[in-house]
Structures are given as structure tokens and as C-alpha cells.
């Protein structure tokens, strides 16, 4: 079972260009969502949409790293869950590698980091489910 | 008493329920056997079991006079669906950023 989201993307622009699009509210809005973001640690902000995200800036290292919390509601039950979004920028010869890690989904990791390892657990689970649902 | 309904994330937010699921990941267990592992009243254990059952994390099968709890996939699928949703969300957004940056360069 997947416990976090990871994406790596290459952009042929400089880290500064990419950083601007991550941290300038009006540029961020163009590709993500309307927001009141500021690149200041401790700043609380929102991404405005049908299912508004409540966030707080945790880390700001200009052109290198940006982290914020990401709290949104379960689509079905409207109950909040908390997670974390981390952006890392790596300068490359002809551009910038941007890494995104979105993890910390409430207590999901605790459950999955179970000593036996999740894969083993999931296999067993599948076996059990098949047995039960006959 | 109205049965409480929780979403998948709330179900796993409770440490006792996580521990119950970890025990059940090793083998199915009767409610009594499960309760022996916890320092809480039998009604409290039953309440947790009902919550996990309602959210699709376990099934309960009556065998003789015993009630057997077994992990069920549905609850875990809901967690996975949520993660999959955001996985695709970000992939789409990052692609859009690429288009924007490229247009800007022209």
C-alpha cells in the first residue's frame, strides 16, 4: 500500500524561476489554486476551492526547499485530515529538478510501518478477505 | 445508542484501533481474545470493533457462540483512494506548471 506521494519533474528553467511559481501568490494561483500564501515560516494560509485547504508554512529555504502542512476534508464525510507537502529544488545543467513529497496522512504511516511490513500484511489481508467473502 | 460512523482516517487515528488491526493482521481473532490484549472494559472493546466494522475495516463472523473478527479490505481501499486522488491531482498540476513556465520563456 502506497503511503506517500512522490513526483519528480524536470523544468528547463532556473531554480529561481521555478521558486517564483511556488512562492509568489499570484503565480502559484496560475497553476495550483487561489491562495493567500507568503513564504514566511509560521504563516497560516489557505488554498481556496470547493474543498478549501488550510495550510501553515513550516520551512522556507529560498530556491531550495519549501514545506507546508496541508489540511483538507475527506470528500465524503467532510472531516479534516492533516498531511504535509514538501518541495525540493535541485539545480541541473539545463534547468531544475523539482521534487514533491506529499505525506504524513494522519496516522496512516503508523499503521503501515507495522513491524511485519505492509506488503506481507496486505498479502495476508487479501487471502483473508477472499476466504471470508466466498 | 446510535452507532457512531467514522471515516477511514478517523478510524485509524485511534491508537487502540490501530493496535487491534495490527493484531488482526496476524490472524483473525475472537472478540474475547482481542479484548484480552487491552486494558479496557469489554463494552469499550466492542465499541471500537463496531467502529471498525462500520467503516469496512473488519468483518465479524459468528462461529458457534464465538464472534470472530477478520480484517477487511474496504476500509484500507478508502485510504488508498484518497492518496490516489492526490497523486493524480499533483501530476496534473505539475504538468500545468511546465506549460506555464515554457510559455513564459517564449
Which homologous superfamily in CATH is the superfamily of the largest domain in chain A?
A: START domain
Classify the secondary structure makeup of chain B into a structural class: alpha+beta
Question: How many strands in all of chain B?
Answer: 3
Biggest sheet of chain A, in brief?
6 strands, antiparallel
Low-confidence blocks of residues of chain A:
112-134
CATH homologous superfamily classification of one domain in chain B: Winged helix-like DNA-binding domain superfamily/Winged helix DNA-binding domain
- Total of helices of chain A: 4
Summed up, the domain count of chain A is: 2
| Percent helix of chain B | 55-70%
DSSP strand (E) fraction of chain B?
5-15%
Quote the average pLDDT of chain B: 87
Second-tier CATH architecture of the largest domain in chain A: 2-Layer Sandwich
H and E string of chain A: EHHEEEEEHH
What's the shape of chain A? globular
Number of E-type strands of chain A: 6
Helix content of chain A: 25-40%
- Radius of gyration computed on alpha carbons of chain B: 20 Å
CATH class of the largest domain in chain A: Alpha Beta
Biggest contact: A-B, 42 and 41 residues
Strand order of the largest sheet of chain B: 1-3-2
Structure, described:
The complex is a heterodimer of chains A (134) and B (106). Chain A has 134 residues and is α+β, with helices and mostly antiparallel strands. Chain A has 2 domains: 5-103, Alpha-D-Glucose-1,6-Bisphosphate, Chain A, domain 4; 106-134. Helices cover 27% and strands 38% of the residues of chain A. A 6-stranded antiparallel beta sheet of chain A has the order 1-6-5-4-3-2, with helices on one face. Chain A starts with a strand and ends with a helix. Chain B is of the alpha+beta class and 106 residues long. Chain B has a domain at 8-75: Winged helix-like DNA-binding domain superfamily/Winged helix DNA-binding domain (Arc Repressor Mutant, subunit A), CATH 1.10.10.10. Chain B is 65% helix and 13% strand. Chain B has a 3-stranded antiparallel beta sheet with strand order 1-3-2. In chain B, β2 (58-63) and β3 form a beta hairpin. The radius of gyration of chain B is 20 Å and the shape is elongated. Chain A binds chain B through residues 1-5, 7, 9, 11-13, 17-18, 21, 30-32, 74-77, 79, 81, 98, 100, 102, 105-108, 110-111, 114, 116, 121-122, 124-126, 128-129, 131-132, and chain B through 6-10, 12-13, 15, 18, 21-22, 25-26, 28, 59, 61, 70-73, 76, 79-80, 82-87, 90-91, 93-94, 96-98, 100-102, 104-105.
Amino acid at each position: 500500500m502506497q503511503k506517500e506521494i512522490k513526483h519528480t519533474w524536470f523544468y528547463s528553467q532556473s531554480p529561481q524561476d521555478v521558486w517564483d511559481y511556488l512562492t509568489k501568490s499570484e503565480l502559484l494561483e496560475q497553476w495550483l489554486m487561489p491562495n493567500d500564501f507568503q513564504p514566511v515560516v509560521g504563516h497560516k494560509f489557505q488554498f481556496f476551492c470547493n474543498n478549501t485547504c488550510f495550510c501553515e508554512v513550516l520551512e522556507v529555504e529560498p530556491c531550495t526547499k519549501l514545506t507546508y502542512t496541508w489540511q483538507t476534508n475527506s470528500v465524503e464525510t467532510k472531516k479534516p485530515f492533516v498531511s504535509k507537502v514538501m518541495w525540493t529544488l535541485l539545480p541541473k545543467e539545463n534547468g531544475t529538478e523539482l521534487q514533491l513529497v506529499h505525506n504524513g496522512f494522519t496516522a496512516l504511516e503508523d499503521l503501515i510501518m507495522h513491524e511485519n511490513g505492509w506488503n506481507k500484511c496486505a498479502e495476508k489481508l487479501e487471502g483473508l478477505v477472499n476466504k471470508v467473502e466466498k | 445508542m446510535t452507532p457512531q460512523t467514522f471515516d477511514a482516517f478517523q478510524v485509524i487515528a485511534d491508537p487502540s484501533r490501530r493496535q487491534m488491526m495490527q493484531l488482526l493482521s496476524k490472524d483473525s481473532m475472537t472478540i474475547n481474545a482481542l479484548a484480552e490484549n487491552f486494558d479496557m472494559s469489554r463494552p469499550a472493546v466492542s465499541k471500537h470493533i463496531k467502529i471498525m466494522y462500520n467503516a469496512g475495516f473488519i468483518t465479524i463472523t459468528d462461529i458457534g457462540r464465538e464472534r470472530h473478527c477478520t480484517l477487511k479490505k474496504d476500509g484500507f481501499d478508502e485510504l488508498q483512494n484518497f492518496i490516489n486522488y492526490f497523486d493524480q491531482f499533483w501530476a496534473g498540476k505539475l504538468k500545468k506548471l511546465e506549460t506555464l513556465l515554457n510559455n513564459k520563456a517564449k
